[in-house]
Amino acid sequence: MSSDLTLSEGLQRYREKVSILKKGYVQESYRIDQIGRCSLAQKRLHEIASPDIAAYRDQRLIQVNPRTGKTISAATVRLEMSLLSNLFDVARIEWGVTELNPVANVRKPKSPPGRDRRLLPREERKILRHCHQYPNPELYSIVVLALETAMRQGEILKLTWEHINFKSGVAHLPETKNGTKRDVPLSQKARDALVRLGPKTKGFVFSYTSNGLKSSWRYMLIRLEIEDLHFHDLRHEACSKLFELGTLDVMEVAAISGHKSLSMLKRYTHLRAARLVKKLEGNKHRGQQLIIKHLVPYPARVIPSETGVEIQLLDFDDVVGRGVCHETALQSAQDALLRQLMLSIRDKRPIPQPDQYLDEVDELDVIMLDPLVTNDSMLWSVV
Question: Which residues form the Tyr recombinase domain (predicted)?
C-alpha cells in the first residue's frame, strides 16, 4: 500500500519524479543518499513526527564530515531539512500518503553568516602565476574569467564559443542558476584569457568537468599553502571589486553578476575600508592622489654578470637598470621606473599593479624597488 511508503522509498520516488527535473539534481541526489542512510529512513512517512525531525537535525549537527574532519555545517542541515519538507509536501498533496508535514514546525539551524573571505592580493598573484604555468592552459583562463566577470563556476564551464562575441565584448549565458539568460560584459583581461585558448566557431570553451576543476583547485591550494579559499570566493571577490570601482550602482552590478536578490548581493559585498576612506575624501587633492597612488615599490630581479649588474622591473617589458655595481644599477633602475611611471601618467597609459608578473622567477632574486626612496636599505627590501 502507498500509505506504507517508508522515508527511504519516498526519497527514491521523489528523486525520480521531482529532483530529476531540477537544475540542482546532482547536489540534491547527494542529499537524498545521505538522508537515506540514516535510521529515520526506515520509518513510514505517515509515522514520522516533528520530534523525529528534530532528533535528526540535532544528530546531524554533531556528526563529523570524514572528508574535511569538521562537523556538518548548519547550512548543510538546513538544505537537508528543506529537502525533507518538500518531500512531505509532495507526499501529502500529490501522493496522498501522509496528512501532515512534520518538518514545517521544526526549527532549522540558524543560518550562518555569509562568507566574507576576500582574496588577498598576494594570494591572487600566487594563484595566477601557478595557473599561468599549469600544464592545462584552461585553468588560468577559468580563474581570470571568475575574477573579471563574477560568473559562477557552472556558468564558466558551460560557456560555448558561439555565445562569445569578441567584437561587442559580451558573453551570452542562455541558461543560468536562476533560470534566466544573461549577457556578461568581458573586460580586456577576460577577452585575452579566452583568446589565449585559441577561439573556435562552436563547442564548449572548456573541457574541464566540475570534479576535475575541484581537483585542480584543491591541488593548487595545497601547493601554494593557501587556506580556506573556495572557488566561489572568486565570484565574491569579483562582485566586491565591481562595487569598489565606484562607477556602478547596485542594479548594474546585479545585472552583471546575475543576482536576483539584492540582499544576497549585499552579502557578497564587503568594501575595503581604504576604498571607503578615499570615497569619503571626495575630490580633494584628486590630481595629487592620482600620481601618488602609482609611486609605490615594484618587484625587480637582480641579475649579476661579469661586466656589472642588471636590474629588470618584472611588471614592465622594457624597464631595466644597469650599472657596474649594485649601487649604480639600483639608481639606474630607480630612475627608469620613475620615468616610466611619469610618462604613463602623462600619456594616460595603463600602469600595471605591482607584483602582477606571471613569469616563473626565483623569489630569492627578487627585491622591491621604490621609485622615490634613496636609502639603499629600503631599496633592497626582499619580497
Answer: 114-281
